[in-house]
Amino acid sequence: MHINVFTQCSPSPQFKGFWRHQADRTATGYRSLTYWVSLARKLELACVDALFFADVHGVYDVYEGSWAPAVRHAVQIPSIDPVLVIPAAAAVTEHLGFAVTYSTTYHPPYECARLFSSLDHLTGGRIAWNIVTSYLSSATLNGLGEYLDHDDRYDRADEYLQVVRALWEDSWDDDAVVRDPDSGTFTDPDRVREIGHKGRWFEVRGPHQCEPSPQRTPVLYQAGASARGLTFAAQHAEVVFLTLPDPAGGAPQVAALRRRAAELGRDPRSIKILQGSMVMVGETRQEARRRAEEYVKLWDGEGQLAKWCGWMDFDLAAFPGETPVSEIASKGSHSFVGFLKRLGPEREWTVDDVRYLVSTARRPRRNSPVTLFGTVEEVADRMEEWQSVAGVDGFNLIPCPTTQGIDDICDLLIPELQRRGLFRTAYDPAQVTLRQRYTSS
Ligand SMILES: Cc1cc2nc3c(=O)[nH]c(=O)nc-3n(C[C@H](O)[C@H](O)[C@H](O)COP(=O)(O)O)c2cc1C
Q: DSSP 3-state helix, strand, coil percentages of the chain (rounded to 5)?
């Protein structure tokens, strides 16, 4: 089983309002190296595969046509750049991987290639790139380029991948760096070449600016779950992060992704699929119940609305309540509408339904969609069910509440999974790079 822990360099990474939890250290710690370094150490002691960083560009300004609700409730703002945290966290760990989100829409590919080569060197081959096409149109108001239509962003991302792969894989031979003091040659220019890319979106001559790093290409992650996102994942991704409602409802999506990969000539099992689930565990039923009550109290409905409207790029406050969401054209993420279809295939989801679903705190239960809730044993049982019924390879665990949730994953849940023989008790020293960890199990 592969386990990642989800985070973001912002006060309340996934669920809004939880920065108010009494044991929270994330809301202030997110901007300090001490916080990230101690988190990395903790995750490595628990043998976690990787720390996963979400990230966005721009501000959530779609809900009520204003960024004020997002700013008020810390909806991914304020946030700092996760890339800067990684070398420090890598310096105090040996095995923990780092998966970082980076947008193909808002950064040029030449710079992306150099950044990930740098991270791969500095982490000794422990870096993964969560490839996103982005959904916040507000980024374009800050000079970050053009907000294309949904599918065009993916078409552009396909070409983007062609460019960065060529820079990583084709530009430098393994033995290009000779460091020969006698001839005064550091790098043999005959073993370095331009890539000469000229396409619809990009012109990149090369050569790549970095010598080959341990993995050359970072482990490629992908998280978009629309039909177009699925094809992109099937083509490029080595690890896919899905948000499926429940094991039985998610199985067809997992099968569809593997099928699409096979159609594109890939080994379907070579793609590792991680379910993104909120996790909230208690040592006892009573403790789990107490946490569920706390969850309801901390939940911040307006913050959640600001987040989801930005994600979908349509304003739930701007449509009559009975409007079917499937009829609202959106340039944002299409994944959520697909999620609703899997949640209730027969149902016509309206704006009112979604507003309720997104903003209302519901007490977590053992079978709540997406959620891993209950005692440690119950959650471990559910994880086994996810693996056997849905066919996922592991989890991107979203700790809730943030700080205590991380402690619970490391101190309660992982030891239980280890007792069951489901999760490693030590890193395999033969697996030096993050890719080796994914390809050998
Ligand atoms: C589970 C999940 C996590 C995501 N995390 C991020 C993120 O951190 N930053 C980001 O810009 N996009 C993120 N995305 C957005 C997608 O990767 C994708 O670019 C976007 O959703 C549009 O594509 P889609 O319609 O296929 O979802 C995430 C999507 C999903 C489903």
A: 45, 15, 40
